[in-house]
Amino acid sequence: MRCSPRTPTPQVPAPCAARNRTAVKWPSARARCDRSEECNERCLTGTDYPGGFCTIGCARSTECPSDTTCADREGGICLFQCTGNVDCTFLGTGWGCKSVDLRGGGIQVMVCSAN
Rounded distance, CA 15 to CA 12, Å? Predict the structure, then answer.
């Protein structure tokens, strides 16, 4: 699935539109990007984010869109919460449900990340 940054929110595919926390041109956290210009804030690429991943920085989970939490990675980023690998399939090949540190929380949380 690819979420187009030029598609108005009502026409964005459901997994993308559901993650849109503000009235913006494209979602804050979503699957697939090649460069930060396609995202509200940043596009994460590399082996930890197969196919690229649009996200926003955070200091706590309350700053993240619904269905995401603030993971203690990259200085604090919003990643999708999960309970099992099936919850991450919409992100594409290479993604699974992993335990990571919650930013500022001192506990582990389950988020979609690279397998």
Answer: 8
Given a cut of 80, whether residue 26 has pLDDT beyond it is: no
For the stretch 68-94, pLDDT in tens is: 999 999 999 999 999 999 999 988 889
What's the one-letter identity of residue 91?
L
State the Cα–Cα distance between residues 102 and 111, nearest whole angstrom. 10
**pLDDT tens for each residue of 29-48:** 566 788 878 888 889 988 88
Cα dihedral 53, 30, 64, 47 in deg (nearest 10) = -20
Determine contact, residues 70/64, Cβ cutoff 8 Å. Answer: yes
3-state secondary structure the chain: CCCCCCCCHHHCCHHHHCCCCCCCCCCCCEECCCCHHHCCCEEECCCCCCCCEEECECCCHHHCCCCEEEECCCCCEEEEECCCHHHHHHHCCCEEEEEEEECCCCCEEEEEEEC
